[in-house]
Write a sequence for this structure.
């Protein structure tokens, strides 16, 4: 595919997406045009593999976003500071999320001793400072990937400290309970880990993955609680769950198809029932 073809494909994909969204919900774009009320400010990396709205399973208008190389938060960066001030003081977001990621090129560059060149060396200075401040601990990590992941975590921790020292953020924490979070996105599995940095110091959603998956299924496929519970029962039963009786029930209660489709993709089990997946997919397309 040529460079021009990539751009034309992107435009074609946008046209298809816009048509689908408008068909699915005629009020979607008019509502977006009326204004924004995001609940989350996302501070992340510019890496093409970390599109915040996609990996969060959210929609346009849900997240106010600022991304830069290696998700570096510096108090002297007027660009980042302006985004934070607008999101916190004017949009009144409830959460500020600083998210790094695995396999970060900026982290790898900061760990190296060679120049990247141009303005990038200047930009990566705060991350190199993190490296030298933790040099002994990082050197003790022999695996290159593990070392890069660790400096990515330390970079998030340093950034959260900068956020917590920001006057606008401090005022919002005191006045209305703004929450600040430090996270890491694992590109290898698609999951976000709460590192426990920030206002709450929580460790994320360990043990609640099924709850989150179920809510996402209901959000995307508009399924109800009863179909989701029924699907859980069917999944435990394996092949026997997809009897003729259940197929007939699925035809009458179309939400079951959506739940099957969501669970097929969301389940950790790799022994996916492809008949159930196809069934669910057809029902989702039919909605």
């Amino acid at each position: 595919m040529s460079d021009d073809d990539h751009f034309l494909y992107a435009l074609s994909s946008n046209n298809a997406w816009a048509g689908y969204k408008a068909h699915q919900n005629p009020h979607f774009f008019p509502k977006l045009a009326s204004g924004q009320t995001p609940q989350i400010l996302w501070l992340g990396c510019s890496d093409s593999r970390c599109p915040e709205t996609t990996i969060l399973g959210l929609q346009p208008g849900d997240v106010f976003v600022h991304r830069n190389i290696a998700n570096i938060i510096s108090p002297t960066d007027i660009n980042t500071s302006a985004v934070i001030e607008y999101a916190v003081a004017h949009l009144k977001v409830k959460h500020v999320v600083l998210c790094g990621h695995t396999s970060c090129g900026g982290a790898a560059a900061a760990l190296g001793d060679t120049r990247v060149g141009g303005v990038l060396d200047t930009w990566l200075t705060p991350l190199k400072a993190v490296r030298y401040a933790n040099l002994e601990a990082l050197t003790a990590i022999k695996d290159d990937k593990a070392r890069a992941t660790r400096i990515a975590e330390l970079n998030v921790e340093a950034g959260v400290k900068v956020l917590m020292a920001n006057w606008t953020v401090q005022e919002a924490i005191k006045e209305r309970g703004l929450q600040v979070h430090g996270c890491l996105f694992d590109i290898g599995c698609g999951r976000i880990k709460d590192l426990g940095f920030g206002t709450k110091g929580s460790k994320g959603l360990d043990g609640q993955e099924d709850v989150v998956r179920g809510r996402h299924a209901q959000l995307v496929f508009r399924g109800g609680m009863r179909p989701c519970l029924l699907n859980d029962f069917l999944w435990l039963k394996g092949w026997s769950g997809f009897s003729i009786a259940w197929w007939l029930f699925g035809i009458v209660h179309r939400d079951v198809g959506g739940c099957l489709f969501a669970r097929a993709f969301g389940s950790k089990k790799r022994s996916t029932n492809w008949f159930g997946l196809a069934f669910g997919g057809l029902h989702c397309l039919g909605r």
Q: What stands out?
A: The domain at 37-206 is CATH 3.40.1050.10 (Beta-carbonic Anhydrase; Chain A).
